[in-house]
Amino acid sequence: MTKTVRNLLLAVLALLPATVAAAPSGEALAFTCAGCHGTDGSSVGPSMPSIAGMDPEVFVDAMKAYQADKRNATIMNRIAKGYTAQQLEDMAWFFARQRLHLVPQKYDAALAARGKILHDKHCEKCHENGGRPGDAGTLAGQWMPYLQHTMDDFMSGKRDWPRKMKRKVDAAIAEDGKQAIPALIHYYASQH
Amino acid sequence: MTKITRRDFIRSAGGVAALGAGLGFPHLALGAARRVVVVGGGVGGCTVAKYLRKLDPTLAVTLIESKTAYTTCFMSNEVLSGERTLESITFGYDGLRRHGVDVVTDTVVGIDPVKKTVATAGGREFGYDACVVSPGIGFKWDAIDGYDESVSETITHAWNAGPQTRILRRQLQAMRQGGRVIIVAPPNPFKCPPGPYERASQIAMYCKYHNPRAKIIILDAKDAFSKQGLYVEGWTKLYGYGSGNSMIEWVGAAAGGTVESVDPSTLTLQAEIEAFQGDVVNIIPPQKAGAIAFAADLVDGDWCPVDKRTFESKRYKDIYVLGDAASAAKMPKSAYAANSQAKVAAAAIVARFLGREPGDPTFVNTCYSVVGEDFGISVAAVYTLDAAHNSIEEIPNSGGVSPANASPEIRKREVSYAHSWFKNVINDMME
Ligand SMILES: Cc1cc2nc3c(=O)[nH]c(=O)nc-3n(C[C@H](O)[C@H](O)[C@H](O)COP(=O)(O)OP(=O)(O)OC[C@H]3O[C@@H](n4cnc5c(N)ncnc54)[C@H](O)[C@@H]3O)c2cc1C
Hints:
heterodimer; A: mainly alpha; 0% strand; globular; B: alpha/beta; five-stranded parallel sheet; four-stranded parallel sheet; 32% helix; disordered N terminus; binds flavin-adenine dinucleotide
């Protein structure tokens, strides 16, 4: 009970504007993303990732990487550069509070089953709960074409691997060969 | 912040949202719900209706739209190439009804800013506390000699997607081998600045397979156009642009591209320097705000002046004008712009009802064009309000067009982004 009250207070405090100077609210900023990422960040477009429920730190890190042209973006880098660090933070908190709505996708059950084994062994430690929103990027239920683009970028060196991730992916590929990446993608697609 | 507080925050967020909504009800105690009437069920109108209900579920929101379903202009050029059907870009209003919006099929013929009522062709009257007008564009029928609304049934504009899009598609299919398509592009400002050039591209995409000796000539009233460098790059790679054998030819204003008159019986266009005769002619006339904006006296010249903080009309209080009809430079007349402006207006209206000052607005525009198979390009911008000049300004060092000479992989991704954007923007405006 007291913990709940404390959390509520914290949350209310976080909702108050961080600075006195007038500026668009986190909500207003986040609303502009919906044209591409769906209402409140639940995407229905297969190449656009869902960002609802995303961990705020993961969101800010991603946007800063786009600002620095450190991801193989076509368009996000150009858009990310329009925001201040504070605005990114405000948007991040807005999306963190949104419930993620996922759209069922077609996947190959046999591949997904294999993917689950690979995930449990190599990926679960960072992408907890089958890759549900958490301290690392959301994978569970994420769109397959988006996951494919992301993996292509890691594999071709167009995006830097997060700490330890390359070793883990290499291990999964050593285990299952060419099938490893598709298996993982089909597994995540099955997790909505 | 430590990780623990971050997580606690997210867990407790549901409770806070409920608390916030609870605080947002003061006017309920005062009696009847506030009424917002939205005129036009296109991008701006649908988005504002949905977001008004989302921001304050106690509002009574009525959307009045002439048609029973909305056919999007965006992606309608893909109907011309045969990549998609007209049905695949047509959407009903049940999604908005599920959000509690009262959707009425009727045409608005007048708005009384004093009595605060909206009158329809069907003889009904709707009272409002706030009225949002997003009627899109109208055409200047007197701009090209010989071209008027009745002629447009055969020499189409196809600039409001629907039956005309289908006619133009059939004309392309019926064209003789080696025939000539002429597209007349309008002067600025007009709906969808890259649209005529995407249209030429999509027609070329069709002809490449079905009519490989066909020519597409764009007669332009301008000397430059949106994403020009990228279009030229795509046309050069895909359609031989610049070679003696190019499928697409662009004639800008300086080269005599401005069209003065048309002879519908011979499909001949008199441009400034020479005459052009086509087998299929598509004339996109100069544009102005939709008719209701003129009937309701919301215009100053061709477009509707607005306060860029709220999109409230500069001419009448409590009337808001969005999207193509509004004078919202530097934002282009695009679906993304209308969608972005609608959220700013919705938040401003809700704030006003609560007796608060509207917050600072923020806007985004992105616009994709599919130049050909696996070849997509885009333009993006993030904007902020310059309150002192009542103007919307691009944030320096952000936005811009796709990189030149990008890899085939990136161009292909942009096509998939274009189609994903389409799904998300429809979802955000009316699902
Ligand atoms: C070929 C083409 C391609 C395009 N591609 C893109 C793109 O890729 N990306 C992009 O962002 N934009 C694109 N656009 C632009 C986009 O379609 C418009 O900018 C957008 O639709 C503007 O929204 P709006 O609400 O102002 O008007 P509209 O969407 O045109 O909606 C206006 C609505 O109001 C209704 N209406 C008008 N008057 C009345 C009345 N008196 N009573 C009742 N109802 C009324 C109309 O029937 C219509 O449904 C494209 C446009 C064209 C022509």
